[in-house]
Amino acid sequence: MSEKTNKAAGASVKAKPAADTDDIEAVKSLNAAYEKMTDQLGRVIVGQKQVIEQVLVAMFCRGHALLVGVPGLAKTLLISTISEVLHLSFKRIQFTPDLMPSDITGTDVLEEDHTTGKRVFRFVHGPLFANMVLADEINRTPPKTQAALLEAMQEHNVTVGEETFSLPEPFFVLATQNPIEQEGTYPLPEAQLDRFMFNIIVDYPSPAEELAIMKRVTGTYTADLTPELTGEDILRLQAIVRRVPAGEHVFTYARDLARASRPGTNEAPDFVNELVNWGAGPRAGIYMMLAAKARAILHGRYHATTEDVREMALPVLRHRVITTFNAEAAGITSDEVVLRLLSEIRPPVEEGLDGLTSSLGSGSYGGRVDD
């Protein structure tokens, strides 16, 4: 066979790009790791599978999450266990009314060299310098300290005086709020709530789960956990999430949900104009798409679907849809508004998905959601 014929034969078979193959293998390994992680977390946390999935989705999207639930639902234990399974450093900050910004970011300390007698300032790192930070009862601390935390969430660095210190990567903040005791608290403004990718509701366990919790906690059971992913793995998977393909109809559906939540617009249904004071901003559509992509690869799929958007819409939208006074008086929550939106806003007609699997690894996204 001639060299010319060899070239022609080779041209008819296109080799899969190396980056493409690597990304697909990474998706397979992440799906396997996700199954192992949920199994290991189940050894410590009984139930709460949806909460675990939403926390992991936020982490792989480089987002932060707000966990809302009454005391005693193992929110702290859940987050510390996830950090152990992911082999990440973990710090817990108990927010109180007297907590100052320097208490969480760190501060300069004056030290004296006993040999030379020279005095120098040394920066002492605060608890924010960890991969996973649990901001316990974030609404207990004044706005000044809340702003210092939210600035670190946005910029991934801390500025003290004239120096800027980078926070370790990956960096996640998981903040908790107690919904039943609001006296003496400093509720987060809507603009700061919007910085959180998810608002995750941690609900009571089922009767069977509560019985299992009682038996496990009052016995001698101890869980043996094995780290499944490292910080470097998570950073690589965060980049892969951005490259997961999705059809045009999936983007359109996320856009339609966000726009339908805004009263006074042509896209808003009548019940939104009646019950909603402020709707979700553009960040909601971005987060829904990122969450859909992350959920898809966690479940071992190579492209995001409208079903992924539907599953992630509630934690993305519930703290971005602000109900009116009349809705609050009638006991109608933002959750009910979002669920009604999901029932009335139907996904566009699904377009062809040919080629989406092979496009994984070929796209790129250079920006950040915060930009």
Notes on the structure:
By secondary structure, the protein is an alpha/beta fold. It has 2 domains: 17-96 and 131-156 and 165-241, P-loop containing nucleotide triphosphate hydrolases (Rossmann fold, 3-Layer(aba) Sandwich); 244-363, Orthogonal Bundle (Helicase, Ruva Protein, domain 3), CATH 1.10.8. It contains 16 helices and 11 strands. It has helices spanning 3-11, 18-44, 49-60, 75-85, 101-105, 143-155, 190-193, 207-217, 231-243, 248-260, 270-275, 282-298, 306-317, 325-329, 334-344, 356-359; strands at residues 65-68, 90-94, 106-112, 119-125, 132-136, 157-160, 163-166, 172-177, 198-201, 276-278, 322-323. The strands form 4 sheets. A 5-stranded parallel β-sheet has the order 2-5-8-1-9. The protein has a two-stranded antiparallel sheet with strand order 3-4. Strands 6-7 form a two-stranded antiparallel sheet. A hairpin with a 2-residue loop joins β6 (157-160) and β7 (163-166). The longest helix is centred in the N-terminal third of the chain and has 27 residues, at 18-44.
Number of strands: 11
Unreliable spans: 1-18, 353-359, 361-371
Termini gap: 56 Å
Number of domains in the coordinates?
2
Q: What is the share of helical residues?
A: 40-55%
What amount of the residues lies in strands? 5-15%
CATH class of the largest domain: Alpha Beta
CATH fold category name of the largest domain = Rossmann fold
Structural class: alpha/beta
